[in-house]
Amino acid sequence: MTHPLVTRLTTDFGYPALQTIADVARFTEAPGTHAIFVPGDARRNLETPDVAVILPELRQAFQGQFDCAVATDAIETELRESTGVLKTPSLIFFRNGACLGGIPKVRDWSDYVERITHFLSLPVAAE
User: Fold this and answer.
1) What pTM was computed for the model?
2) Which of 34, 36, 47, 49 is deepest in the core (most CB within 10 A)?
């Protein structure tokens, strides 16, 4: 069962729920920078609801410089293993289908800002 604050990301904010690795590829290969929220098990991980609340605030603070999606349980393990961002909850950033890096667990606001600023400043990979 998904936590209501995670569900809110897809219902209220319209973030896509990625259910297959093909969904991940379509989302991350689109123009721009993309963040995928990997929630983990909210029953065991008390930080999951916190990150679900923080993510829309981050997107707003960065004035929409990245879009967001939520990884479903069906692909979570494969996504974590393929990106090397193993801890949950996490935010994994992509551009041109390539992983830029991730932010695992809950962080201080300044840490989020510093890391996201770094991801956004990375050069766009050649296609």
Assistant:
1) 0.95
2) 36
